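For the sake of clarity, the format in which proteins appear in this thesis is described at this point. Each number in the token line that follows is a code from a learned vocabulary of backbone shapes. One such record is shown here in full, so that the layout can be seen directly:
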Amino acid sequence: MLTNTGESGLEDLIVQHLIQVNGYELGVNEDYNRDHAVDETRLLRFLQTTQPEECEKLGLFVNDHKKAQFLNRLQGEIAKRGVIDVLRNGIKVYPANLIMFYMTPTARNLKAAEMFEQNIFSVTRQLMYSKDHTRLALDFVLFINGLPVITCELKNRLTKQNVEDAVQQYKRDRDPRELLFNFKRCMVHFAIDDDQVKFCTKLNGKNSWFLPFNKGYNGGAGNPPNPHGIKTDYLWQAIFTKTELADIIENYAQVVAEVDETTRKKTYKQIFPRYHKLSVVKALLADAKDKGPGQKYLIQHSAGSGKSNSIAWTAHQLVTLEKDGASIFDSIVVVTDRI
């Protein structure tokens, strides 16, 4: 059997894993509404299946005019609040309140577990996203309940291209004025090869800022050798699982406002956790849940790598830790030498 060593071979590998192991559905371009940047087929199916009474209030399936009104309102809410907040908190479309994502269930909450399983995770290959340049396509896009959350561009070093070529493709060829690439429309944009991963939360042409999303190796950058496969397979095998993406949406990803002290002007920044941040917070939570309070830890992050976020995410989730139905921590105190 011949092995596909080209870029499409890596795409095959990832998408097959998402569908066969992670439980994703495979979308097609015909499902995608370019006017509103949603997988309309799965968006409407999710709402009809989980909230038929709310859909009836809106007359969502009565005629195209009602459907267009809803899609316009959804588009406006995403533009205003961002896809992360819309997934977390749903939207109000008078006279209905729509849940856009069912959160991770707590232990023993069978109803919540049942509703979480109603979420539709899907992947569309070679997504033709543009209204005006209809042949332009992304390697693949991940959707949750029809809302795009992650775009991906792939390169394969066997074809003499690497992650930096994928980064340049985003900077050079992916126009941020396209609806799918508008700020807050997706959680994150990944550049991937078989050796490294980088990501960006705000596409801005040549000024797009990409950060590593690697495990690190021997105390430095990059990824360790993988005796069982590709160095970067942790991305689709561990990060692109339903439970992990849900955890990131609920506890890590966010849009924050920063205020200039001189002009009082607000700017907005979308945050997606880097791999080492996810790793350290999860390790702390797991150990604290197992051993309880009173332990000591030393976490080393380099300058500018996001220590404040790691502290905040840890504190936020320590409060919610339970064991045998009882809270592990009554209160959390953070002592810092900076504002």
User: Anything to note?
Assistant: The first strand starts at residue 25 and ends at 27. The chain is about 35% helix and 20% strand. The longest helix spans residues 64-81. The radius of gyration is 21 Å.
